[in-house]
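Lab manual, section 2.4: Encoding a predicted structure.

Procedure: take the sequence of the chain (241 residues), apply the prediction step described in section 2.3, and record the output as structure tokens. A sample record is shown.
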Amino acid sequence: MHLKKQLALAAILLFVVPATLRAQDNQFSAWGALFHTQKLSTHWGYSFDGQLRSHDEISYLKHILLRPSVNYYFAKNKVGALGYAYIATYGRTPAGDQTFRPEHRTWEQFIYSHKIGKDVAMQHRFRLEQRYLGNTAATKNDHYFAQRMRYFARAVVPIGNDSVVFNKGPFVALQNEVFVNVHNKQKVNKHFFDQNRAYVAIGYRINKMIDVETGYLNQYIKQAETYTLNHVAQLAFYTRF
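Recorded output:
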């Protein structure tokens, strides 16, 4: 119980730090996501996640994200991946006209997983992204290439589970992800720091292959001169086969 209290305190701190900053713009949106992992053999498998993200006040669909990858299992708790992502971004001009910007990514990542205590599952993910952003309009020539590094940490804390293996029941998910620009930051936001996402959720493990969770994500986005604090309600499904 002492360990779980420490994790809960860490989660609170993740939210307190960005929340104390005076946000230039507060937004409220909703995200839906599906994360699937498929192991094909001892060493090989693949993953896919698809996400839908709304604009402020859920006024319209802002992002569609599709992200497949090929995975290599060095060990049960060490996985490398090569992937691709397509992100469609929809927007509105001050006059109300619709806008669209495509983004293609290639990316490489490494995931290391371990236990904290008897039953808390911890995951660390290191990802390098190559971002190919398209033009914001057919009449513009503002496409560019940039690279970004991301570090993600996630803990799944079972509730009322006394066994070493957690196959069914409720849980709390705590996670945080930091994004930094490592190439061509002048085109992104002129800063090394890009954004931070802190998240806490309540979930239920239906069986060892399926989780469903809902929670709150605090997205702090650094821009060239200002920043945005996006308050996100998220619903996510995780499948593992």
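Check your result against the sample. Residues 174 and 200 are 5 Å apart (CA to CA).
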